[in-house]
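For the sake of clarity, the format in which proteins appear in this thesis is described at this point. The record quoted next illustrates the convention:

___
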Amino acid sequence: MKAYIQHLFILFISGLLLFTSCKQDELIFPDVVQTEETVTTTRPTARPNNLTLFSNYNQQIEIFWPAVSDRVKKATVTYQEASGTKSVDVVSFDKPTILAVEQEKEYSINIVYYTADNTPSKTSTIKITSKPFENEFKAKGVTMLASPGGVRFIFPSTTAKQFEYKIKYQVDGQPKEKVVTSSDLDVIVEVTGLSDETKAYEFDVTVTDKVLNLTSKSYPYSQRPGILPYKEIAASISMSGYFNKGQIFWSNGSGKNVNFEISYSLNGTPQKLTIPNTAVENGNYIFAINTVATAIAVKVTGEEGLSTVVNGSVAPSQLKAFNTADARKGWTPYASNSNSTSEGPPSFMLDANTSTIWHTQWSTTTTSSHPADQKYPFTLIFTFTKTRAASASGLFNETALRTPAAPFDPIVVKEISLLHRSASNRVVKDVRVYGIDLQGKEIDFGQFTLSNTVQETKLALNNNEILKAVKIVCLTTFSTTNQFANLNEIYITGYPEK
């Protein structure tokens, strides 16, 4: 009976052991949802379910441990270095294990867990590539951009701690150094004072980790600087004649101030004109010049104090005689009074035909009963329109024709010629002459008396203004009784815009 009971007890114990037994690894590791190891590029914010490896800067590999069984007493981590196999025993799994590796390369990290009785688990092998030291990573990963008169060095972001950025270079054979210390994640260091945009400057860059007191190797770079704004502005300068003057044009898209100094000789006297501290985007400057081509030197100075000179030559527009029908075909005439469409509207003063004339109302005398607008004074206006405005009446006496619409072909008028009906038929005596500028302002050039011996009288004007029209007011007549007026032609000599 005793032997039978012992036999039953052995069977019971064996069954219990069989029921509760499992694989060796299952005794060591608890069940988890995810069973594969993980390699990440971001450090986990909380302890994961499974093993996580993180490659950090400064050739450090961090191991974040999962929850392990109570029976796990340690883990052994091994990896291979050039100097041999490295082994680290880990007994605390509550904080990451940091491996300071010797190289920047891919490592195979082997991990074995052990129980208290030194029973090993299967080996877990994870491959991970170590990152370089931050200062080396920054120094060799620079991106360069040309800036006006300089070069920008853009350093890659790593962690927020203090680094010293040092850039060595030469300018005109003289050694230079730019040093910036910063804890910012994004650091840009700009080297300025590089005035030759055609030359590639050589730079040596080092970065020092101020926390580790570790300086990187020196890395060489080469880069051309960007062109300085004043040079771009100088390259944009153009010169031209502007009526009877000179004009320079320039473009400035930089928003930087520049100074202009214009040097030339005017009638034998040296001239120096200045335009100080201007940042206007599209500029022009008009100045008096000689009546022939004039040599011009324009000095452009930038905010850096550096300058360049642009040389050129400017000639005024050529004096032009507007004395043909074709030269005056677009002009719009106006007369305060005309006799008829056949004899004659003021358009007849622009046709270069000696047999057609402008004529006011016939038979007016000092004693006749004609209305006042048919007697002196009479007003003539000739506007330099590109296309002649139409006259509904054909007499060109409509009020709107006093100020016809643009576009115009403006002129700096220097001389007006008025022609009598003929050399033997001279009627108008005194006239007053006005110019009308582009803004519509009248400029009084004074009173003139026409010749009583020849057909043509030339009226020289002391004028340098750009005009869109001239106005002639006929004041008096050579006749003691007649009150009509007539003229054959009006010629104008002046400087056109082109």
Observations:
- The radius of gyration is 49 Å.
- The first helix runs from residue 2 to 20.
